[in-house]
Specification:
heterodimer; A: 349 residues; Rossmann fold; four-stranded antiparallel sheet; 29% helix; 23% strand; disordered N terminus; B: 381 residues; alpha/beta; 12 strands; disordered C terminus
Chain lengths: 349, 381
């Protein structure tokens, strides 16, 4: 980290109004209709050095498409990206310089690391591609393995992926991303495929990289409790839209959007054995036919207005925003709904 | 809830006569399933891996037994082998699995599933024990409509039913799990993951079995869908009174759902206790570690450590306690001698850990000696 100055609090990657549509053809008897699915709609975020931004959502909420747009693997339909203050031309091809700054860690380490090559190969290849000195790559690969706590690194370099456990492989996957000294790490569900007992190790590793090496981390998850554990800022996505966002743990401690409340109430909570089961219909459509709030078909508080008009984002409190008509008029955090969990309830440990 | 099997249910051979004179629906403490010294190997000879090692479990009627464990802990192998669904190179190498089947007249017949013939198994499967697998997409035949899944089960086991009756029963079952009749004419790919899993549950309940085995039924689902299915299962169980084995890696889910929990690690059960007791006062260091592995949803944010290291390779398991290399309380003895699951205290729970061996002079660490704050007495006299 000698060639890049430590710059705490600097915005490394800024995304403004990112959207991505996917067009599918609907086979009909005479005409083929087109249907547009809004996978991600108007998402703006900033990834800041030394901070973790968590994106929480269920499958199909668009969170992975968002990560791929930030990594520039998927081209946005509209919206801008800005890397360290420099705008990225929207249609430009992803270049090495961008890849060196922004790295993506995928969900399944068993699928994302080439099984026919030794770990050494997976780590040295990005170094060589990014122009590292061939004589030094072995040493660099060893040092990066030590950074992810795979010790002794020599033992791991000459192993094949099948010889490692899931947790160790995910560490290799993070090490591979760190090889090129990125400023931004995008982690797409990095723990969901791992055993429960090693998940915290990976979360703590991400936290450590963020704190000690000043990385900007995007943490994508469906597990809101882990987002609360790790994140400095949290975004909840539903059907391609950001429905609630907050700085710190406000969103989990005092959720204001009905979807966030449903999400939190659904998490198994051993400290509360008398949990109430929320009733909810299946996810609503995400195509252009939807006019109102996308959560309205599942929402217990939906009114006629919710079905007709899409709600804008209201500010609930400092750094806390919610996309719900219930919060119209910038009213500050009146808990319209109470979750089954009181604030500051008993801890589980 | 003891590990030992009561005398009156200890048949030296499988008998046809009823061993229990108690009328159905009265005794809660009647066992529905007794597993004793059950072991499963993969392969043979030098490359043999023991995936399930001397497991002993007992499940009473209408109760929920949760089995918690990580991948590779042997939890799925246990239920596959127990229901004789395991294929080669998996091999049952010892033990007994007694399923106490009740017929229409209330006569209880224990069947040893390990020694049962194919035709005996066919009678037991689905009528008395059914299984719901993790991936409903691969469990349902992709080229058959949903209705056929019901039809085949009913056709095989209820030969006297007419086509119209089978259809009516299928509709009834779908309603039970909150699906509409039109789903019967759909193909699996037309349903969402949650709907497919609901269909699987409905098919499993088709013949009103006494025991339903759920192998990670909600792992592939969203947390909201998971919650819906769990609450539906609770309702169905209250209504039909089947016993359930629920397998998952999510211990916090089990604490809510199960009456009793068995924690598996590297092929054997390391701790067994009532759900609340296990949660409030874990005894095995691995259970403690697992409970500390879930970030809480409330309270102050603080650093959690999880469990260092990773699960052992069963082809080359550590000598002594298999958890010892990862255990913060490991003693010299743990590295050489393997602890067995033994009864512990008067709480009717058992643990496989040298810390609780009365013969050793070790002091139990404070983290593992908590008293359960509110003892649950469900099922206890």
């Amino acid at each position: 980290m000698t060639d890049v100055e430590l710059d705490t609090g600097a915005v490394q990657l800024r995304a403004s109004h990112l959207s991505r549509d996917f067009t599918t053809r609907v086979p009909g008897r005479f005409v083929r209709a087109k249907r547009v699915t809004h996978a991600v709609e108007d998402v703006s975020l900033e990834l800041v050095a030394g901070r973790v931004l968590a994106v929480v959502g269920e499958s199909g909420s668009g969170k992975s498409v968002l990560a791929r747009m930030l990594a520039r693997i998927v081209t946005p339909t509209s919206g801008e990206l800005e890397l360290r203050g420099t705008p990225i031309a929207p249609k430009a091809k992803r270049d090495l310089a961008y890849a060196a700054m922004v790295q993506l860690v995928l969900q399944d380490p068993f699928a994302s690391i080439n099984p026919v090559h030794r770990i050494r190969h997976s780590l040295e290849r990005p170094l060589l591609i990014h122009g590292a000195d061939r004589a030094r790559v072995g040493e660099l690969a060893r040092s990066v393995l030590e950074r992810v706590s795979l010790d002794p690194s020599d033992r791991f370099l000459d192993r094949y992926p099948h010889e490692l456990s899931g947790g160790q492989l995910q560490r290799v996957s993070i090490a591979r991303a760190l090889c090129v000294k990125p400023q931004v790490l995008l982690a797409d569900e990095p723990i969901s495929m791992l055993d429960v007992s090693v998940r915290l190790g990976i979360l703590n590793l991400l936290k450590g990289l963020c704190d000690d090496e000043n990385l900007a981390v995007l943490y994508i998850t469906h597990d809101i409790a882990s987002a609360r554990y790790l994140a400095d800022e949290t975004i909840v996505m539903y059907a391609g839209q950001v429905v609630e966002r907050s700085v710190g743990t406000a969103l989990v401690d005092e959720p204001t959007h009905p979807y966030t409340q449903l999400l939190i109430a659904s998490v198994p909570d051993p400290s509360d054995p008398t949990s109430i089961a929320p009733r909810a219909a299946t996810a609503g459509p995400m195509d252009s036919s939807v006019t109102g709030c996308r959560f309205a078909p599942r929402c217990p508080h939906a009114s006629a207005r919710c079905l007709a008009e899409s709600p804008p984002v209201f500010e609930i409190g400092p750094g806390h925003h919610s996309r719900c008509w219930l919060h119209e008029g910038n009213r500050v955090a009146t808990p319209v709904l109470t979750t089954r969990r009181g604030k500051g309830g008993p801890t589980t440990t | 809830m003891s590990a030992t099997i009561p005398r009156e249910h200890e048949p030296t051979e499988v008998v046809d006569v009823a061993t229990s004179a108690v009328a159905t629906g009265v005794a809660r403490h009647e066992p529905v399933l007794e597993i004793e010294g059950f072991s499963v190997d993969y392969g043979a000879g030098a490359s043999m891996v023991r995936a399930v090692d001397e497991v002993t479990l007992r499940l009473d009627r209408s109760r929920v037994l949760g089995i918690a464990g990580e991948s590779g802990s042997g939890k799925s192998t246990l239920v596959y082998a127990m229901t004789r669904l395991l294929r080669a190179p998996g091999l049952i190498s010892g033990g007994r699995v007694l399923l106490h089947t009740t017929d229409d007249d209330g006569v209880v017949t224990p069947v040893n599933l390990v020694e049962a013939s194919e035709s005996e198994l066919r009678k037991v499967r689905w009528s008395h024990v059914s299984i719901v697998l993790q991936s409903a997409l691969s469990a349902l035949n992709p080229v058959l409509r949903i209705g056929r899944e019901f039809d085949e089960v009913l056709k095989t086991h209820r030969k006297d039913m007419t086509k119209a009756q089978r259809r009516a029963r299928a509709v009834e079952l779908l309603r039970l799990v909150g699906l509409t009749e039109d789903r019967l004419d759909r193909y699996p790919h037309e349903l969402s993951g949650g709907q497919r899993q609901r269909v699987m549950i409905a098919v499993a309940l088709a013949l009103d079995p006494e025991l339903v085995i759920m192998d990670e039924p909600t792992t592939a689902l969203d947390v909201v869908t998971q919650r819906e299915i769990i609450s539906e299962l609770a309702t169905l169980r209250a209504r039909f009174g089947f016993a359930m084995i629920f397998i998952t890696h999510d211990l916090s889910l089990l604490v809510e759902l199960a009456d009793e929990i068995a924690v598996m690690y590297a092929g054997s059960i390391v701790e067994r206790a009532g759900a609340r007791e296990l949660y409030e006062a874990p005894r095995h260091p691995y259970t403690l570690g697992l409970l500390h592995s879930f970030p809480p949803l409330h309270g102050e944010r603080r650093e959690l450590t999880g469990i260092p290291g990773s699960p052992p390779d069963l082809a080359d398991p550590p000598a002594g306690c298999r958890f010892a290399p990862r255990c913060t309380f490991a003693m010299a003895r743990c590295l050489t001698e393997r602890p067995t699951l033994r009864e512990f205290g008067d709480e009717g729970r058992s643990v496989a850990c040298w810390l609780f061996d009365p013969a050793s002079a070790s002091r139990v660490p404070v983290e593992l000696s908590l008293a359960p704050s509110a003892r649950q007495t469900v099922g206890e006299p």
